Amino acid sequence: MLVHSRRARWAVWAVFLLLFVPLFALPLLVVLGASFATNWSSVLPSGLTTAHYEAATRGEALQALTTSLVTATAASLLALATGTWAALAAAALKQRYRKALDALFVLPLAVPSVVVGLATLVAFSQPPMLLNGTRWIVIIAHTVLVTAFAHQSVSAALTRLDPAYEQAAASLGAPPAYVLWRVKLPLLLPSLTAAAGLCFALSMGELSATMMLYPPDWTPLPVLIYAATDRGALFTGSAVAVVLMTATLLVLLAVSRIRTRASYR
């Protein structure tokens, strides 16, 4: 809408395609092509097969997909609850305290995720919170890594929220808990679902911290992809990567539908 002439619109589309195709679309298309290939010695893959997907949807790969889905779901829900609670609490604080709380939640983003993994490993390898070697330490690390996104999303939504709704409910005698559950949270539902989807997608693809923490019986799918490519099984690893992308996309589409319905209520 900012570009009015036809020639300028074509130029914008050309620049978009020149940037989008090689930087975003082409790498994904290469992974998709490799997932169906038995050999790739020229420009295009050869020896097309679906055998890699048979390996990517059964046995160890299927268990790893289930592990990733459970981990991402648990981490997203925990991050959403923690981030929402912190954003609501920060809204009632003075500006300097609110900035300090925001900085605390953003801190995991300021350091590499492997540092978060190491910190989690050190913190939960001694009693009374001895979680090393369990699935819970992986879920905790993922929660720490994605909570910042939930907190920032809800905080931004709170600043745009019209206080007139809360004031009207309070003036009619509604207690604070009722205002929170029946007024404020329903108004925040589109932002909450968006935050949940973002946290889920980030958790599904997290690798660095997971590599330091996962026990043998709780191997997420990104670890399996790394292991497959590390031993030279690039085509099988590509098929597993496509399964990971597809599962994540399907969940995000479901969350998007929920968000759309919530926006029109």
From TrEMBL:
Keywords: Cell inner membrane, Cell membrane, Membrane, Transmembrane, Transmembrane helix, Transport. Residues 65-255 form the ABC transmembrane type-1 domain. PROSITE patterns: ABC_TM1 (PS50928). CDD domains: TM_PBP2. Pfam families: BPD_transp_1. The keyword Methyltransferase does not apply. InterPro entries: MetI-like, MetI-like_sf. The chain crosses the membrane at residues 12-37, 69-91, 103-124, 136-158, 187-214, 234-255. It is a multi-pass membrane protein. It is found in: Cell inner membrane; Cell membrane. Gene3D superfamilies: MetI-like. The keyword Kinase does not apply. Belongs to the binding-protein-dependent transport system permease family. This is ABC transporter permease. The lineage of its organism: Bacteria, Bacillati, Actinomycetota, Actinomycetes, Kitasatosporales.
